[in-house]
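Reading group handout, session on sequence-to-structure problems. Before we discuss, look at one worked example. The prompt was deliberately terse, the way you'd type it at a terminal:

> structure Response regulator transcription factor

The input record follows.
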Amino acid sequence: MQDQSIFIAIVDDHTLFRSGLASLLEEFDEINITFEAVNGLDLQAKMNNNQQVQLILMDINMPVMDGFAATKWIKMNHPNVHVLALSMLEDEKAIIGMLKAGAGGYMLKESTPSDLLTAIKVIVNKGFYVNELVSGRLLVALKDSDQKPVFSARELTFLQYCSTELTYKEIADLMNVSPRTVDNYRESLFAKLNIKSRTGLVVYGIKNNLITI
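And the output record:
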């Protein structure tokens, strides 16, 4: 018995990829490509006339309105429509960003049509699809969020001096180290905190009670 059709929209600004994907998916009897859109704004315009859409294959990097904003709009205005992110990006920021925006799953563009079909069916039936890519990135992000930076006593002393008007040379003199060592303290803190300025270090230190004003 033939499965019930799943109505899908594809949102991607790359015409060749979008059209090629539509052709591949239409070979599955259970897939019905309702429409294609070039970005989130185009999606908005076409959704009103295509209420039967059940799932949207959403690219991330698109001009005018990207996948993050388009997914948020879909979940706000069409909460019953599922979103499956389909991107070339593999980093945690992209994956978690799309999941936070409301996507029910995340697949790479290099995925096979059969894998994509599996993800589509699972999301339509269950509301989400967690593959190895997503679970792996979520675990890494969870692990990173639990890790608090560890500072040496000298780095904390340097951080305290950063809240003053002292130059790095004067800080080095007070700490009885060379200016190069002070540079190392600064670069180490920049790396640990992903901060790029002295002001950023001071703000972090105050917020985390590491600096006494």
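Points for discussion. First: The beta strands are 6-11, 31-37, 55-58, 82-87, 105-108. Second: DSSP finds ten helices and five strands in the chain.
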